Amino acid sequence: MNISITGNLGSGKSSVAKILKEKGYEIFSTGSVFRQLAMEKGVSVEEFNRQVNEAAERGDRSVDRMIDDTTARIDGERDNVVFDSRLAWHFAPKSFKVFVITDINESSRRVFNDSLRASSEAYRSQEECRRALINRQKLETVRYKGIYGIDYYDMSNYNLVIESTSASPDELAGEILERLEEYRRGEFISMMELNPSSVQSAGNMDANADSDCICVNEKGGVFTLYAGKSLLDSALAANSKFIVVKVAKSEDGGEDSFMNFSKMTEV
After folding, report:
1. Which residues of the chain have pLDDT under 70?
2. Are 88 and 157 contacting, i.e. CB atoms less than 8 angstroms apart?
3. Which residues are 193's β-sheet partners?
4. pTM for the full model?
5. What distance in Å separates the CA atoms of residue 62 and residue 217, rounded to the nearest whole number?
6. pLDDT for the residue numbered 195
């Protein structure tokens, strides 16, 4: 079975894909293709993204079409492929679909310090990097909605939504493979897993301490505990890296917010 993995810029999905390669998977990375095309044109990834967006508005979708057609062809011809791609979940519909979420401050720190990207993504400061990532996400969101009528930041598109802010690539890869095996056995339901340390307290939670699940409210990528304080406390005490959560309520977090959890609300 193939795996399609996407996520926030700087979420670590490419590092996870490399670890999965060590487990016997083949990698197809559209990000690498995109960065190579930007380098060949002598522009930054952000600038190339803007150019591709403008070309799409004029009806020229050759770059997107080339990547999408290649994804669909590989998915039909091969097995045990990891697609490190924004839209592979859409063009490889039978794959196990994973979205990796990360706090924007952490993702900008990672990208800013990633010397491997310096030739195509050089920034003078982490704040400049943060603004560039936000702008790039806006451009991609507009382009994909315009071309395909889809929102790849809609978390309901994925089998597994998992957080990498406080987890290593090895830990992420291990959790993804464990959930994939459950999916293969027919024992898996779509879920979201957060790092316990990312769930913020909302004051006195005693009334919800004995809930049978951990429920959160989400606003702009910030998760606040709604119910399940005892379960969260136990996970923190055990130094667990991941907890399964349900989203009780999701709100727009303003211009820095891209992820859409509204269709995932369950309570």
Report:
1. 115-121, 203-210, 255-257, 266-267
2. no
3. 162, 244
4. 0.84
5. 40
6. 97
Q: Which residues pair with 225 in a beta bridge?
A: 216
Residue 241 CB partners (closer than 8 Å, separation 6+): 166, 167, 171, 175, 195, 196
Q: Are 202 and 216 in contact (CB under 8 A)?
A: no
Is residue 253 within 8 Å of residue 221, measured between CB atoms?
yes
Helix axes 45-57, 30-41, angle to 10 degrees: 90
Q: Which two tokens stand for residue 185?
A: 């056995």
Nearest to 159 by CA among 171, 175, 143, 147: 175
How would you class 55 by CB atoms within 10 Å of its CB: exposed for 0-12, middle for 13-18, buried for 19 or more?
middle
Give the CA angle between residues 74, 56, 124 to the nearest 5°: 90
According to DSSP, residue 2 is labeled -
Q: Are 74 and 91 in contact (CB under 8 A)?
A: no
Distance (Å, whole) CA 49 – CA 143: 9
DSSP 93: T
CA distances from 264 to 57, 65, 216 (A): 31, 30, 11
- Tell me phi and psi for residue 49, to 5 degrees: -60, -40
> Could you report the per-residue pLDDT of 206-232, keeping only the tens digit for each?
546 667 899 999 988 889 999 999 999
Type of residue found at 245: V
DSSP secondary structure string, 162-226?
EE-TTS-HHHHHHHHHHHHHHHHTT----EEEE-GGGEEP-S--GGGTT-SSEEEEEETTEEEEE
CB of 4 closer than 8 Å to CB of 80: no
Question: What type of residue is 231?
Answer: L
